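help with this:

***
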Amino acid sequence: MSCFEEAETEETVTCLHMTFYHPCQEEKMMFRCLDFCKREQVRADEMAKFGRDSNICHYNLMDTRVSRIQFSLQFYRKLDSSEFCLEIKNLSKRTKLTVNQTELGYLNKMDLPWKCIICFGDYQILAEIQEGESVDYFETHLHLAEAPILQERSLPSLQPIPEDGISPSIFLSQGKIPTEIDENEP
């Protein structure tokens, strides 16, 4: 047998790509402690914690408005399944966290969608999961965005769309204000 045949099977690793944005990054450098463009391993039995306390969090955000521990990510496998998932948990008592417009209060958690935007305060983080097979660890790969992620990705706005399908912003851009009419009036 050749060495090639005896070598262990190479398995793929789940990788969480995270792209960070804050409007004051250039002047305040709140991401200066994050290691961009280098993949880092996180053991499956550990939590990846994000916040400003460097004694507790591996991913540090240098901003006094960020909680000591802002949020955590936990790698797990679903019951009776081979599917691996990441769970996000808000660990900030002061700041709500939103994941694709779902609001998480303190200690609330949810499965991280395969592609989502995480927001708290002025922070925007695009998270994208690249699936893998490894059970021992997952990887993080951090990136820095130059433009706001919400605008860059053209996500749908949070404004409700009226039943008639005409957006009130059309009227406002024309200097007109929509008025409500009773349908029984002539």
